[in-house]
Design goal:
By secondary structure, this protein is an alpha+beta fold. It is about 35% helix and about 15% strand. It is built from 25 helices and 23 strands. The strands form 8 sheets. It has a 5-stranded mixed β-sheet, covered by helices on one side. It has a 5-stranded antiparallel β-sheet with strand order 5-4-18-17-16, with helices on both faces. A 3-stranded antiparallel β-sheet has the order 8-9-22. A hairpin with a 5-residue loop joins strand 1 and strand 2. The longest helix is centred in the N-terminal third of the chain and has 18 residues. It is elongated, with a radius of gyration of 35 Å.
């Protein structure tokens, strides 16, 4: 009696000998089963020993793609994403009924034959010859497994999938030889385990564990007889025998499997008959795939994590390499998202801005000193149904990471100008005449030896009552445009752009910051994440840390796990502690006595700045405590609706200001995010008070503190979107010697006219 291998089947040597002994016949039969028109032609050479031996016999099994779990900082699940919904489990974690059912219906002699079942081949040939068509196949479970490996390796590439499943003689013969190798190396039980983990069961479920969860909402180890028979029957044609869409056809197929199990002795006829009488008993769990399933409104953060993975070289040299790992899945990604902070952000957004409003809001919170993104949300829901107001554009981030083109930050840029001036040695008591209206100073030094020089370009403060002189403290609290433009006229443009870059400020579209004095008034389009991270520099006393979203990643390959390297925040000093402390003192005054009073926190020290762009296309509040920094933007993502005579969150506004709409959103979200944590103090500096001025000076007449104080003061006079007059050497003819064109491009899409621009 031939010697059997452990787990059943002939030894590799016996398999090969038996195979080679009838190679021509088997090759012809197998090819004939798949390709009746060509099966009898040209097979002898392919079936020869020499040709067979020349075929490669190495099956490189790709890691099976599995689900990826994205978790928050406390380990709670944010979302599950996958290219293929699969959870790999061991054979011991699969129901014995399931194991018997799949063998009975797909390869009942699995434990008796080797890689090739010649008896099955002859039986199929005879049946097909009698029927005149291909009515029965003869591939063993091992051969099917090999084919599935090819399909898995092809991934989602339709060309490669077609090649992996093409009905050709060459592929059949190669499949045979590799099946022999697999039998030799793995043995029957491991082949069965691998097969049940790799095969497709329909309804996006790959592998028996995912199938059990999809159709019955239970684990594969808990499947009963009739459930196992149903799943085993699906494999032959997942679309035809789909129980969700065709219960009758699926029931017939299940009963065929039960009959076959009784025929081969796996169950009694009585058990089969009883099981056939039971209903399918489906308890379908719909596929929960992708960031659209994210909890706590974290769909956009989830998508940002995906963008980080696909764009960061730490996960692979090329985008293709990174995409392959992502699609393979099996990742457990612990992120920086703090569930308390995220919940607070979403609640504040919901309380203040409705999804149906004409404008939207986006908010982000980061942790100073670490760069960790702890919360990210927006009022427009994550999704693809635009009729329901859904979007996949993340309004909080740059375009390269799934965001839009960004939004002008208005006067929230002014503290960066102040930091540049202070770092360059300007005293905090610096005073300027700060008239209500003035021309942009000219010439103004820019980088690379160039000079901005465009005469006769005007800007103004929000109200005619705003007339200096002002010092830095009062000008910052009241957001005086002419003060900050006079400041940049003194220090030049280059120190400002250099300071901005040190603080991580970059244009949302990836372009460089503009070399124009109007940058002082916030004309450069940026994202909320950029501004939150920049202000975190002040909170951490001058150290900027690049934003990070991922804490750790473990990757599961089969039943083993390994840790992956993740991007780390890079921290560097952007300014001295003294400069940061001075700016903190200035911005603390904004929320205490200036334009940001409606955003101030009662329970702990806070600082921040309001911003409203020209024509009120956008309004901002960016602020921080020593522990968290956050940015809130409100506006129309399409940049079409001016926020004048508008209702937001059920509240009508004649005009929208940074302090009156984004400010309260910021205050509520920060209060909730910090609830239960100890309050930290700033390191403040003494700033001498200027001479007493009229308390009513500079206030508006619409909302809070005279339109919120800043808010009665729009923001940033002179849309500044002017780009012109930047030339070499400070000559009077702007743009004539290799500099920027000597024209003025106003508005930057905000419709500004250079006067009465941004305030806040």
């Amino acid at each position: 009696m031939p010697k059997k291998r452990s787990g059943g089947g002939l030894s590799p040597t016996q398999q090969a000998a038996k195979f080679l002994g009838v190679s021509v016949l088997a090759g012809a039969v197998l090819a004939g089963i798949a390709l009746p028109a060509v099966g009898a032609l040209g097979l002898a050479a392919k079936g020869s020993v020499e040709s067979f031996d020349a075929l490669p016999a190495s099956l490189k099994t790709p890691p099976l793609s599995q689900r990826t779990a994205i978790l928050d900082s406390e380990g709670g699940t944010i979302a599950t994403v996958y290219s293929r919904d699969r959870t790999v489990v061991a054979l011991k974690d699969m129901s014995p009924y399931m194991q018997k059912a799949i063998v009975a219906i797909e390869d009942s002699r699995f434990y008796e034959h080797g890689a090739v079942d010649l008896k099955g081949v002859l039986r199929a040939l005879n049946k097909n010859a009698r029927s005149g068509e291909v009515s029965e196949g003869a591939s063993t479970l091992t051969q099917q497994y090999v084919k599935n490996v090819f399909v898995e390796e092809a991934g989602d590439d339709p060309t490669k999938v077609a090649q992996a499943t093409q009905q050709t003689i060459g592929r059949k013969i190669r499949e045979l030889k590799l099946a022999i190798q697999v039998e030799e190396e793995l043995g029957k039980k491991k082949i069965l385990e691998n097969y049940l983990n790799i095969t497709f069961f329909g309804q996006q479920a790959y592998g028996v564990e995912a199938a059990a969860q999809r159709y019955f909402s239970k684990s594969a180890k808990d499947l009963n007889l009739q459930e196992s028979a149903l799943l085993a029957g699906i494999v032959q044609s997942p679309s035809r025998y789909d129980p969700v869409n065709d219960e009758a056809e699926a029931t017939k197929r299940r009963n065929v499997v039960l009959t076959r199990m009784a025929q081969v002795g796996d169950i009694s006829q009585a058990e089969a008959d009883k099981a056939k009488k039971t209903p399918l008993g489906l308890k379908v769990s719909r596929p929960k795939n992708g960031c659209i399933t994210a909890v706590k409104g974290a769909g956009f953060f989830c998508d940002y994590v995906r963008a980080v993975f696909l764009n960061d070289p730490v996960f692979g040299k090329t985008k293709e390499d990174r995409a392959k790992i992502w699609n393979q899945g099996g990742l457990t990604i612990r992120t920086t998202l703090d569930p308390q902070a995220q919940k607070s952000v979403q609640k504040s957004i919901k309380d203040h801005v409705h999804t149906s409003d004409e404008v939207a809001t986006a908010a982000t919170i980061v942790e100073p000193g670490t760069g960790k993104i702890v919360a990210m949300g927006q009022s427009r829901p994550y999704g693809i149904d635009t009729k329901q107001g859904e979007t996949t554009i993340n309004l909080s981030v740059n375009s390269a990471m799934g965001g839009g083109a960004g939004y002008q930050p208005g006067s929230t840029f002014k503290p960066i100008v102040a930091a540049a001036a202070l770092e360059g040695g300007m005293p905090v008591t610096q005073s300027y005449s700060s008239p209500y209206e003035m021309d942009y100073p000219t010439p103004v030094a820019a980088c690379d030896g160039k000079t901005w020089n465009e005469k006769g370009v005007k800007l103004a403060n929000e109200n005619e009552t705003e007339v200096g002189p002002y010092d830095m403290k009062e000008a910052t609290a009241k957001s005086v445009n002419t003060y900050y433009v006079q400041m940049i006229g003194d220090i030049g443009i280059c120190p400002v752009t250099q300071m901005a870059e040190k603080m991580g400020v970059e244009r949302a579209n990836g372009n460089k910051l503009e070399q124009t004095p109007s940058i002082a008034l916030g004309v450069t389009e940026v994202s909320p994440l950029t501004m939150a991270s920049a202000y975190a520099t002040f909170a951490s006393r001058g150290t900027y840390c690049t934003p990070v979203a991922i804490e750790s990643i473990s990757q599961r390959i089969g039943n083993k796990s390994k840790s992956l390297e993740v991007p780390k925040s890079t921290c560097a000093r952007a300014m001295s502690e003294k400069t940061a402390d001075t700016v903190n003192t200035l911005l603390k005054g904004v929320v205490e006595d200036g334009t940001g009073q409606q955003a101030g926190l009662d329970s702990r020290p806070s600082a921040g700045k309001t911003g409203t762009t020209d024509e009120r296309y956008a309004a901002w509040f960016v602020g921080y405590t020593p522990d968290l920094a956050g940015a809130v933007w409100v506006g129309d993502p399409k940049h079409e609706r001016q926020m004048v005579n508008i209702t937001i969150g059920g509240v009508p506004h004649d005009k929208v200001f940074g302090g009156a709409v984004p400010g309260p959103i910021w205050g509520d979200m920060m209060a909730g995010a910090l609830e239960g944590t100890p309050a930290s103090d700033f390191n403040l500096v003494h700033i001498p008070d200027s001479k007493e001025k009229d308390k009513d000076e500079g206030r508006g007449d619409d909302e809070g503190r005279g339109d919120d104080g800043d808010d009665g003061n729009q923001d940033d006079g002179g849309d500044g979107g002017l780009i012109g007059g930047l030339i070499d050497g400070g000559t009077d003819n702007g743009g004539t010697d290799g500099g920027f064109p000597g024209n003025i491009i106003q508005g930057q899409g905000n419709g500004g006219n250079g006067i009465g621009g941004r305030r806040d």
